[in-house]
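Quick one, T. Sequence first:
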Amino acid sequence: MAMIRAGLQKIATAFTGGQGGILSRFVSNLIPRENTAVNTQKDVIATCNKLVEERASRNFAIVHLLGKQWRVTDGDLVVVEGYWPPNIGDKIKFDKVLLAATKDFSLIGRPLVQPGLVTVIATVISKGLSHTRVHFKKKRRKQFMRINFQRAEQTILRINSVEIANKINEAPKNVF
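Structure tokens:
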């Protein structure tokens, strides 16, 4: 048992201990490469900016609205339940954009996409009540029965546009 333990310790020190172990010996023998990651990143950003300018494909976004996340694109209808103050015909700009994307690339926020980079504009189409929901309670053999009807307020929004600015990875401009 002691021989096995000693052998395992020698193997462990060969991999991790001493002058860096086997793995560091392999890594140190490699020829250092140029820092190409920065150039690649700039190329990717330039390609994305070019695609945004050309408007090659349809944009979509994931927005945070009234505690829920919605995937929206141009022309979509969104039905929001609960009381919401905007009136019919009001135009709304969504500030909380979590993700914006096209067919070719995605802009993912941490947790939100950079302010001013993505603009999502919607119009309130109608306000009303939902269909009637029935809540039925009954206890058998106790002569107890309750029927409650419930209708929630609803607001229907039409998404007018989802636009990505053509300046990805630039500092936001202050409007003040």
